[in-house]
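Before a colleague's protein record goes any further, I have to sign it off. Alongside the sequence sits a line of tokens, each denoting a local backbone shape. I want your independent view on whether this chain really folds as the tokens say. Where you disagree with what is written, explain briefly why. This is what I was given:
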Amino acid sequence: MYLEGSKYTVQVYTNHKNLVYFTTTKQLNRRQIRWSETMANYNFRISYVKGSENARANALSRKPEYQENKTYKSYAIFKKDGESLVYNTPQLAAIHLLEDNHLKKQIQSHYNKDTTATRIHKTIEPGFTIENDTIYFYGKVYIPNQMIKEFITEQHGLLAHGYQRIARTFTRIQEISYFPQIRTIVEKVVGNCDICIQNKSLQHTPYNQLQTPDIPSQP
């Protein structure tokens, strides 16, 4: 956390040579893209050093710093609810979503134009809560009506997920957000995605080449 936003380049020495490749390659898989997005917040340069010449790194990474006779409180992210697991606190489901400050401000700015949000601000209804100017419905961020299509389109096109199909996009969006008729609207927006339509694989046998018809022997 102390390195984030540093104006000076942080020099990192590692005996893991693949990390150097990771910061220079242009072809990344989905998991690497997610790591790359996180690491983009830091100004650093990675240099490779053989393990035998980098003894200090082992000392720093392997030396335990736990204090004796000190208890550490564990915190469960999920809790059991019947046959399924749910988030232990209302906001855990939406933490990643609201890390995007621009998106957060957009959602909040549209609340004053949304009839449901206006009603909730006046009288809190069952299932709804308001924290830091954001409306939640059972722990999921409430998306105002005028932002629904834009929100689905943005979530569907995230680099980390790469234009997934309707079912997966719906599952991800349902986990972090709420708005009425969520499945129907997700199906409609994703089903009309221009990029998905253009890149959709053919579901039929390839067409044959054109054949010259036989010349008729009589009129």
